[in-house]
C-alpha cells in the first residue's frame, strides 16, 4: 500500500491545534482531491476541466471555488464585506444571520484560514433530481373557484426556480392570452458577459422583457443545453401554451436562476430572488428540484440549511423535491453494543459503461455524538472469498484526509478517506470513503466496528463531472452480513427544518369510462426520516409521467407528446418522472395559497399543507404525525386554499379541521367524488338549474356518485345527514 497525505491535511491539523483566535476552522470534507488537483493544474482552464466534482466555476477568467462560512461572533456583515473587498482572492456573496457565501481563487486557498469566520465549509455540488397533476392535486377546482369566494391562479406571487435549461421564449411562460411574458427576471450564473445582479460579480442578469427575450435561453453549462428547468417551471406555473397544459399557478410571475452547481451560488440566487420580491412587494416561493446527496449534513444543521431557515423567518417559502432513491436499498444502520461488534455489507457499484463519467462509489457514514467508530473494506472474489483488505480507519483519529490505494492480485483499488472525530456542524463523528475499482473483477465489502452507538451509512454513485445523485444497494452477500434499506434517504436542501419536502406518486385521473384510477406511490420517491429523526417528506404530490414544456434550445432527445407553434417556432412537450416534478407542483399550490392569503408565514403554509393533505386507499390510514413514505398524505389544493383564507396560526395542527367539504373533479365526466364529508348515512339529491330533481340516493360513508346518465349541464347537489347539510354546484361535461 502507498499513500499521499495532502498539504491541506497538514494545514488543517495546524488550524485545529492552534489557539490563535484569528484563524478559521475549516471543514475539509471533500477538499482532499480538490487540493491535489489545484497542485497538478497550473492554469484555470486545465483546472476547470479536471474539477467537475467540485464547486469550481470560471468567473472572469479565474477558477473560483465556492464556500460557505459562519462569521465569528461580533463580526458584522458590513465588516465581512469590507474584509473581502480588500482581499483580491475573495469575492463575498449573500449573507443571512451570520451565514455567508463566498468564492476564493483556487490558487489562493490559503486565504481560507484567515477569514473572519469560526467555520468554513466547501460548498456542496448540486444535481437535478400537467393535466393529471391539476386533477390529482385538486388544483382544477381552485382554478374554477368552486366552494371558494373566487378563482385563484397565483396572481401577485413570484415563483423562483433554481435549475438548468431554461427557455425564456417558451409560450408556457407567457400569460394565458400568449401576449405578455410572465418572466420577471433571470440570472444566468454561467454567462459572464454581464451585467451582474446587485453586488454579485458574476453571471448575467436580465429584467426587462426585451432583454430576457434577446437572451433566448440560459447558456450551455455542465449539463449542456438542458431542459430540466423549463419542464419544472411549466409544472409550477405554465400558462398552457394555448393547448390547455396549464401548470398550478398560471398567473404567477417567474424568477429563473441558472445555478452554478454549488451551494454558494444557490444562496446567492436565493438572496437575489428575495431582493426582487421585496422590491416588487410580492410574496416569494422558491422551488428546488435538485439535491446535495453526498456532502453536507443530512440533519438540517449545515450552514446552507441555517441560511434557508433565516430566509424563511423573513417570509420566503422553500419547497424541495425529496429525492429519487426510494427503490434502492442504499442505506443501512446498526447500533453497536460491545467491543468487537462488527458489521459487513457488500457495496454494489454502478456499471462503468452506464455513464461515461462513472468513477466509483461514495460511502458516507455518520455516528452518534461522542461515539467513535472504525470503517474499512474487504476485497473479495467468488462467493465472498477475502483476498485483501484496507486498514480500518477510526473517527477518533480525525481530522484526517488520505489518498491511497490497495493492490490485490494485480488489481488496483484507489480510494480516499475524509474523517472527523466531531463534525463542526453537528458534533457527530463522520467518515466518507470514495472507492474506485475500475474493471477489476472483484467485490468490495464495507466493514464497520464500534464499541457502542448507532452508525448510519449510505452508498452513492460518484461521477467525475459531478457527485451523482443516485444510490446503489448494500447487499447481504453472506449469512450474518447486513443488507440495505431505502430509509433515511433525505438529502439537502430537503432535510432543512423550514423546507417543505415533497415525495411523489402517480396522479389519479379519470379513464375513458369515467373511473378514477392511479394514485399509487412512485417507486423512486425517497423515504425519510432525516438523520435526526424528523418527518420527511412533509407531503406528496404527482411526479410520474408529468407532461410539461421542453426547452427549444435543448441538446437532448425526448419522446414528444405535444407541439405548439408560437412566433414561428415549434415548442414541444414531454412526460418526465421524478420528485423533480412533484416539487414544483407543490410550489405552485403554495403560490395559490399566497394569493388567497398573502399574510401566511412559511410555517403556516407547511402546517396547512400537512393538515389538509388527504389519505385514501393508496396511502392507507397515516399516523397523526405522518409517515416517512407519504408524509402527511397527498397535497389537496382545494382544501389548502380554503384553509388559507381563514387560517389561525394559533391552532395546533391536530386541532385544525376543514369546515367545508369539497366536490371534485369540477367539471366532472362520469364520476363525482367528495372529500371532507362526515361519516355515517347520507342522503343526496341532484337538481338541474331549474330545480328539477334528476338523481337521488342514500349511501353510507359517501365518497362518490355515478353521474354518467346526466346530460351535460350545470347541476346542484345537496347532501344531508344527521349532523350535516351542504349544497354544491358542479358542471357535467361531455
- Strand neighbour order, sheet with most strands: 11-10-14-9-15-17-30-33
Termini, distance in Å? 75 Å
- So, CATH architecture of the largest domain? 3-Layer(aba) Sandwich
Low-confidence stretches: 1-22, 652-659
Helix content: 10-25%
Supply the number of helical segments: 13
Integer count of domains: 4
Q: Mean pLDDT score, rounded?
A: 87
Question: What would you note in describing this structure?
Answer:
The relative contact order is 0.13. Strands 11-10-14-9-15-17-30-33 form an 8-stranded mixed β-sheet, sandwiched between helices. Strands 1-24-25-26-20-28-18 form a 7-stranded antiparallel β-sheet. It is globular and about 85 Å long. Strand 21 and strand 22 form a beta hairpin. The chain folds into 4 domains: 116 residues, Alpha-Beta Plaits; 360 residues, Rossmann fold (3-Layer(aba) Sandwich); 145 residues, Jelly Rolls; 71 residues, Immunoglobulin-like (Sandwich), CATH 2.60.40. The protein has 734 residues and is of the alpha+beta class. The longest helix has 18 residues. The termini are far apart.
Amino acid at each position: 500500500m502507498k499513500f499521499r497525505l495532502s498539504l491541506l491535511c497538514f494545514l488543517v491539523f495546524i488550524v485545529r491545534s492552534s489557539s490563535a483566535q484569528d484563524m478559521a476552522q475549516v471543514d475539509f470534507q471533500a477538499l482532499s482531491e480538490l487540493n491535489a488537483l489545484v497542485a497538478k493544474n497550473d492554469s484555470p482552464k486545465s483546472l476547470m476541466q479536471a474539477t467537475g466534482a467540485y464547486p469550481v466555476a470560471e468567473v472572469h477568467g479565474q477558477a473560483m471555488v465556492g464556500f460557505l462560512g459562519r462569521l465569528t461572533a461580533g463580526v458584522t456583515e458590513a465588516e465581512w464585506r469590507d474584509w473581502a473587498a480588500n482581499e483580491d482572492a475573495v469575492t463575498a456573496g449573500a449573507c443571512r444571520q451570520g451565514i455567508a457565501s463566498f468564492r476564493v481563487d483556487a490558487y489562493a486557498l490559503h486565504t481560507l484560514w484567515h477569514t473572519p469566520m469560526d467555520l468554513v465549509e466547501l460548498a456542496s455540488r448540486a444535481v437535478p433530481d400537467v393535466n393529471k397533476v391539476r386533477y390529482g392535486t385538486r388544483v382544477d377546482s381552485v382554478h374554477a373557484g368552486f366552494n371558494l369566494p373566487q378563482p385563484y391562479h397565483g396572481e401577485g406571487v413570484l415563483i423562483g426556480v433554481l435549475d438548468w435549461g431554461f427557455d425564456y421564449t417558451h409560450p408556457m411562460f407567457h400569460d394565458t392570452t400568449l401576449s405578455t411574458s410572465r418572466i420577471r427576471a433571470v440570472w444566468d450564473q454561467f454567462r459572464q458577459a454581464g451585467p451582474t445582479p446587485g453586488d454579485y460579480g458574476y453571471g448575467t442578469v436580465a429584467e426587462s422583457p426585451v432583454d430576457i427575450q434577446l437572451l433566448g435561453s440560459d447558456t450551455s453549462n455542465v449539463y449542456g443545453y438542458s431542459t430540466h428547468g423549463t419542464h419544472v417551471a411549466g409544472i409550477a406555473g405554465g400558462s398552457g401554451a394555448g393547448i390547455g397544459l396549464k401548470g398550478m399557478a398560471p398567473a404567477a410571475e417567474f424568477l429563473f436562476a441558472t445555478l452554478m452547481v454549488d451551494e454558494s451560488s444557490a444562496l446567492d440566487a436565493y438572496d437575489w430572488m428575495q431582493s426582487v420580491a421585496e422590491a416588487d412587494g410580492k410574496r416569494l416561493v422558491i422551488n428546488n428540484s435538485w439535491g446535495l446527496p453526498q456532502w453536507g449534513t443530512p440533519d438540517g444543521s449545515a450552514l446552507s440549511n441555517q441560511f434557508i431557515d433565516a430566509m424563511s423567518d423573513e417570509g420566503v417559502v422553500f419547497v424541495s423535491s425529496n429525492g429519487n432513491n426510494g427503490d434502492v436499498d442504499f442505506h443501512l444502520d446498526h447500533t453497536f453494543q460491545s467491543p468487537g461488534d462488527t458489521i459487513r455489507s457488500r457495496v454494489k457499484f454502478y456499471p462503468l459503461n452506464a455513464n461515461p463519467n462513472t468513477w466509483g462509489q461514495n460511502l458516507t457514514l455518520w455516528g452518534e455524538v461522542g461515539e467513535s467508530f472504525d470503517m474499512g473494506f474487504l476485497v473479495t472474489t467468488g462467493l465472498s472469498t477475502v483476498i485483501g483488505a484496507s486498514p480500518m480507519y477510526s473517527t477518533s483519529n480525525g481530522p484526517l484526509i488520505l489518498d491511497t490505494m490497495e493492490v490485490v492480485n494485480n488489481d488496483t483499488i484507489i480510494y480516499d478517506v475524509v474523517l472527523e472525530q466531531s463534525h463542526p456542524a453537528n458534533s457527530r463523528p463522520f467518515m466518507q470513503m470514495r472507492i474506485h475499482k475500475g474493471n477489476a473483477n472483484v467485490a468490495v465489502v464495507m466493514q464497520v466496528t464500534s464499541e457502542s452507538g448507532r452508525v448510519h451509512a449510505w452508498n452513492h454513485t460518484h461521477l467525475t463531472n459531478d457527485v451523482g445523485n443516485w444510490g446503489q444497494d448494500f447487499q447481504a452477500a453472506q449469512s450474518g452480513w447486513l443488507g440495505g434499506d431505502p430509509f433515511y434517504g433525505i438529502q439537502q436542501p430537503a432535510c432543512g427544518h423550514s423546507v417543505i419536502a415533497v415525495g411523489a406518486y402517480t396522479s389519479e385521473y379519470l379513464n375513458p369510462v369515467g373511473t378514477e384510477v392511479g394514485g399509487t406511490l412512485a417507486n423512486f420517491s425517497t423515504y425519510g426520516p432525516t438523520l435526526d429523526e424528523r418527518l420527511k417528506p412533509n407531503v406528496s404530490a404527482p411526479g410520474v409521467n408529468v407532461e410539461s414544456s421542453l426547452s427549444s434550445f435543448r441538446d437532448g432527445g425526448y419522446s414528444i407528446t405535444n407541439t405548439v407553434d408560437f412566433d414561428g417556432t415549434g415548442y414541444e412537450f414531454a412526460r418526465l418522472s421524478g420528485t423533480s416534478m412533484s416539487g414544483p407542483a407543490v410550489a405552485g399550490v403554495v403560490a395559490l395559497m399566497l394569493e388567497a392569503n398573502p399574510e401566511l408565514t412559511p410555517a403556516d403554509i407547511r402546517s396547512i399543507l400537512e393538515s389538509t393533505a388527504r389519505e385514501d386507499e393508496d396511502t392507507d390510514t397515516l399516523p397523526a404525525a405522518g409517515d416517512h413514505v407519504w408524509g402527511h398524505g397527498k397535497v389537496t389544493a382545494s382544501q389548502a386554499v380554503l384553509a388559507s383564507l381563514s387560517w389561525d396560526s394559533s391552532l395546533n395542527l391536530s386541532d385544525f379541521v376543514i369546515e367545508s367539504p369539497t366536490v371534485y373533479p369540477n367539471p366532472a365526466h362520469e364520476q363525482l367524488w367528495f372529500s371532507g364529508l362526515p361519516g355515517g348515512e347520507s342522503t343526496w339529491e341532484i337538481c338541474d338549474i331549474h330545480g328539477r330533481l334528476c338523481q337521488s340516493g342514500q349511501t353510507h360513508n359517501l365518497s362518490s356518485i355515478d353521474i354518467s346518465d346526466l346530460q351535460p349541464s350545470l347541476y346542484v347537489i345537496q347532501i344531508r345527514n344527521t349532523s350535516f347539510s351542504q349544497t354544491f354546484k358542479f358542471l357535467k361535461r361531455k
